Amino acid sequence: MRRNLMLLVALVGAAFALPAAADVYPSKPIRVISPFAPGGGLDVVLRPLLQKMGEGLGQSLYLDNRSGANGMIGIDAGAKSPPDGYTLIGVTSGAVTINPNVYSKMPYDTARDLVPVINVASAPFVMVVHPSLPLHNVKEFIALAKAEKGELAYGSPGIGGTNHLGAEYFLQLTGTRMVHVPYRGSQPLMTDLMGGQVKMAFDSVMATVPLIHGGKLRALGVASNHRAAIAPEIPTLAEEGGPSFDLSSWYGIMAPAGTPPQIVARINTAAVQALADPQLRATYAAMGIEVIGNTPAQFATQIREDTARWAVVAKAANVRAD
After folding, report:
1. 222-248 pLDDT, tens per residue?
2. Which among 3, 70, 244, 258 could bridge 238 via Cys, Cβ 3.0 to 4.6 Å?
3. According to the CATH classification, is domain 124-240 in 3.30.70.270?
4. What residues form DSSP beta bridges with 143?
5. DSSP-based three-state secondary structure for 71
6. How many C-beta atoms lie closer than 10 Å to residue 164's C-beta?
7. What is the tens place of the pLDDT at every residue in 283-311?
C-alpha cells in the first residue's frame, strides 16, 4: 500500500510538472536555428524580431546559422533537438513546402517532426526582365515567349527553389516554354540578368526593387493579388494581362515535435506582440517585407496548402533537386 501511495504521489507530481515548467518559461536563452547562411532573407526578418521578442520574454533569443542542402541540415538539427522550447527553427516557404516535393529523400518529415509556431512575414516576388527586351508588360512577354518557341532563357538561384518553381508555375499558367538556367544564388543570377545572359527571372522585392529603381532591370509585374507597398508603381501581373497567382517567400518559426502546446502559444504570443511594434514594422516595410503574424493553426493550414500546390507544379514540370 505504501508503494502504491508513493507511486500515486509521483504520478500526480509528474502531471503538474509540465504546466509548472511552462509557467516559468523561458528561464534561459532560446536558440533559433537558421538553416541558411547569415545575411539572407531569413536573417533579415528574424534578427530584429528576436531582439524585440527577447524584451517581452525576459530572455535573449539568438540565431544559430547552420546552412546547407537547401535548408535541410539546419532544419534536421532543429527537429532532432529536445522539444523543450529552448530550440526553435527559422524556416522559409521553399525549405518547408517545396523541398518535400523535389527531393526523393529527406532526413525529417515536416508534418511528423515539426510543429508550426508562427508565419512571421513574407516578401512578394517580382517578374523582371532585361531592359533590352522590346516589351513593357507581361502580356507582350507571353507573346514573345510563344513566338520564340522555347528559346528564351530564364534564370533562378538554383534548382527546386521558390524562384524556379514560381517561374515554372507561370509558364504552366500561360502555356509557354523557356530554357531554365540555374545559378548558385540570387546575386550571380541578377548579375547575368543585368548582363543579358538570361532574359527573365522571378525574385523577391528585396533583391529586385533596388535594381528596378536603378534602371538596371525592368519590372513586368508583382506576383501577388496586390501591389507591393515598397514599389506601388509596379502593377500586379494580373493588371498587365498576365495570370493571377501569388508567389512570395515567407519566413516563419517552427519547433521540434512534442514541444508543449502552452510553450508554442507563449512563443506565438511574444512574436505577435513584437510584430505590433511600430519601429519593427517600419524596418520591414522599408525592405518590402509584409507582416503576417498568424496563429499556429493558421500556419499549419498554410503549410499544407502550399505543399499541395507545389506538388502539382513540381510534378508537371518534372523538377527534381536530388
Report:
1. 999 999 999 999 999 999 889 988 999
2. 244
3. no
4. none
5. helix
6. 27
7. 999 999 999 999 999 999 999 999 999 99
